[in-house]
Every structure is written in structure tokens, then in C-alpha cells.
Amino acid sequence: MFRKIVIILLLVQISHAALAQKRKKEKAEDPDSTGVVMDRFMPSTLPILLFDDTEKKEKQKKEKKKIKKNIFFGERTKKGRIKQSFRDQTQTQQFHYTYTNKTVDPYIRDIYWFDKKDNVIRTKDFDPSRGYLLHGPYSRSMEETVLEEGNFYFGTKHGIWLSFDNRSVLLDKLHYSEGWPKDSRVSYYNKANNQIEQLTPIEYELKEGNFYHFYEDGQIAVSGEYHYGEKVGLWTEYWNNKSKVIRKREVQYQETPFTKNFRPYIRAEWDKDGNLIYRNEIRAGN
Q: Which of 210, 35, 248 lies closest to 106, judged by CA?
């Protein structure tokens, strides 16, 4: 009898342990199980806005006096070239890249890097083990006609970027400062102290890129993306927590701009401690 009781108790313990392990696994696999997110949006990593290039221009003037091969913005680079065929025409991308793995500003949407393993240029998910950040002059041409040209600065578009049609007629001329469109709108709580309130990226007079709103202490309040002036993807609101970044609410917008009959909806909500309090199960199951 005693032996049976011991066996039953052991089975109960094993069952409880297995159930706990299962719940732990389910929690780990559930992206909504906690509203706490990585700390890349903490106040110590505010956007690096360098729209005033006066000091940099002076530095470039001095560097021009000492012309060195394949050195751009004071960084030694290597040349790269990618050729691809499209409908009996050859597209060529000529670029420079650096072995320096500079920490990329997490607020920049497009980080350009050369994936050496696949021999392609990517704009997302930079992986130092696979490739290198673009740095220096870049051009894209179809046969002998240049379609796009500009400069990169550690993976971000920098300076003047030009685009042309197949008859070499200028289509666009855009200005960037380390990945930020020069026409971006920035509002401040206190400009002297660089206390940013909102950052709205603008290209072609339309909202284009990552949008950010901050609390007065620098903590991220809202983040989302515009494409052709339309809100797209997930827009996230955050609690004003001093020690952690905790999601408050996620609103799902259309994945591509101008999607007909799409109505934005709240995807999930969390309390101030990061506990899930609401999830749109119907939408989540689709």
C-alpha cells in the first residue's frame, strides 16, 4: 500500500513538472506572453540626428587635401561589384564596404550591407558574420546607363542621392544625413538639450520611413512605419517605465499602402508590468 502511494506521488510530481515545462515552453513561444521588450529604445539610445553637417564638411575639406585610394569619410574600404541579368540586360551595382562593424542606429529603417555569402545587397537584419556595411560611393546602372548614385556612411545613405531614367534624365535628388532624410520633421520639448518629441521621416513630400514619438524624459512612447504617406504594419505604444521598455498596445495597420477595405484593429494590450490583458484571438488565428 505504502509503495503504491509513493508511486502515485511520484507520478503526480512528474505530471506537475511536465505541465510546468509545457507552460514555460508555450510562454517562450508566445510573443505576446510579456510586454517587456529589448532595451534598444531606452533613453540612452536616442536617434542620432546630424542634420547640421558644418563640422563634417570642414573635416572633408581637410581630407581632400590628402587623397587616398579607397578611403572615404576617414575609413578604409574595399570595392565590390554585383552583376545581374534582367530581360537580356545587365544591371551592375558598384559599391564600397568596410570591415568596421560600427553599432548601427536602431532608429534607422534601412541599413545597407553586402551579404558576401549570397552576393547580394540587403537593407534589413545586418549580420556581421555574413557581410559588411556599405561605406563610400555607390552606383547602380543598366548596361552603360547610370540609374542611381550616392554615398553610404556605415550602411546608411548620406549626402546627395540622384536617380535617373534610362535616358539619363534626372528624376530625383534627395539629401540624407546618416540615414535620415534631410526633409524629416523633428519637434522638440527642448531643442537646446536635444529633447526630441516627435520624429517624422519625409521623402518626396510624403511620410516615408520609421516614425517615433518620445516622452519628455526620452523614453519611447510610440513607434511605427509610414509608406507612401500611409501607416503600415504594427504601430506600438509603450508605457513610460523608467527601467524597462514595456509595450502598452499594438495596433495593426495594412501591410501595404492603399489596401482597400482594411480597418486597423488593436492586436494586443499589456498592463504596466508587461502582463498580457487583451489579444485579438480572431485576428491572431488568421
A: 210
